[in-house]
Write a structure and sequence with these properties.
α1 runs antiparallel to α2. The protein folds into four domains: about 70 residues, no CATH class; about 100 residues, no CATH class; about 60 residues; about 55 residues. Helix content is about 85%, strand content about 0%. By secondary structure, it is mainly α. The chain has twelve helices and no strands. The mean pLDDT is about 80. InterPro entries: Cation/H_exchanger_CPA1 (IPR018422), Cation/H_exchanger_TM (IPR006153).
């Protein structure tokens, strides 16, 4: 039901705007802001929100693909090459306008106590990629408009520069500004986790073979002792990584919370399936769990934002 209603809102707002000769695209954006800020948090359950967001995420992917396909059918390489100077000028103007808006609004937010760190301001400026919306708007211009054939290659060139130039350099920029974790530490952490899990499975397999009489207890104890020594060394290295990179510890905490949440949901489903409780009660308990998880996530996000601003 919620997916259908959001689809009706999107399509209906576009038709209503077009009927009074105003921008249908802007109307859809305004409608989505209302739905996202009021409809999702207040009028939908966590499960419904997840379904709606998943649906629109896929819809956005499909529409983006179709828009790029339409642009490819509309233009060729030569018009873009012929419009190189207008493309460069337009791209510079767009980037300058975004920089002006980001830095000026950040200054206003700082004045009221909502500080955005300067490094993140640079990222906000450079990460303003242009894409399907710009091209959809220019493709929506009536063919009778004489400037349409000029605007299409220029807009496509700006989008291409944005996706290739800014898109490929955003990761090095984030790393240079010191906003990304050390990839080597993360990879080492994941390798240690995998090795530790494999050793635990090996001990369980030894125990199973002892119970089946495939190996003797003495052989099992000797091999298990060697494995325990390896596990202790691995756990010490994991602890050092926790101390050196707080993001690793935070990620592990989030993973543990997801595991606990999944286990609780599974227990409620099994209880309802076996008749211990009604499905309505199970759904209510699951909804409460998801709400509590969202509240904890918001608290963590607010705390991280406060620590970054300080």
């Amino acid at each position: 039901m919620e997916i259908t209603l959001t689809t009706v809102v999107a399509y209906g707002s576009y038709l209503a705007a077009e009927s009074v000769h105003v921008s249908g695209v802007i109307a859809v954006v305004a409608a989505s802001l209302v739905v996202g800020n009021y409809g999702l948090p207040r009028g939908m359950t966590p499960a419904s929100r997840m379904a709606v967001l998943s649906f629109w995420e896929y819809a956005a992917f499909a529409v983006n693909s179709m828009v790029f396909l339409l642009v490819g059918l509309e233009i060729t390489v030569m018009p873009v090459a012929d419009s190189l100077l207008p493309v460069l000028v337009a791209a510079a103007v767009v980037l300058a306008a975004r920089a002006l808006s980001v830095y000026s609004l950040s200054a206003l937010l700082s004045a009221v106590g909502q500080v955005i760190p300067s490094r993140w301001r640079h990222v906000l400026v450079w990460s303003g990629l242009r894409g399907a919306l710009s091209m959809a708007m220019v493709l929506g211009i009536s063919p009778v408009v004489p400037e349409r054939d000029i605007l299409i290659p220029v807009i496509f060139g700006v989008v291409l520069l944005s996706l290739v130039g800014q898109g490929l350099t955003i990761e090095p920029l984030v790393a240079r500004l010191g906003l990304s974790r050390k990839q080597s530490d993360l990879e080492a952490y994941q390798l240690l986790l995998g090795e530790n899990m494999s050793l635990r499975v090996a001990v369980e397999e030894l125990d199973r073979n002892v119970r089946q009489g495939a190996i003797s207890q003495s052989v099992r104890d000797e091999m298990a002792e060697q494995i325990v020594v390896k596990q202790q060394a691995i756990e010490q290295r994991i602890a050092r990584l926790h101390m050196s990179d707080e993001n690793i510890a935070a990620d592990e905490q989030k993973k543990a919370e997801r595991i606990v949440l999944l286990a609780q949901k599974t227990a409620f489903h099994n209880a309802a399936r076996s008749g211990i409780m009604e499905w309505s009660a199970a759904a209510k308990l699951i909804s409460q769990l998801e709400t509590e998880q969202e509240m904890r996530a918001e608290q963590i996000h607010d705390a991280e934002g406060g620590s970054r601003s300080s």
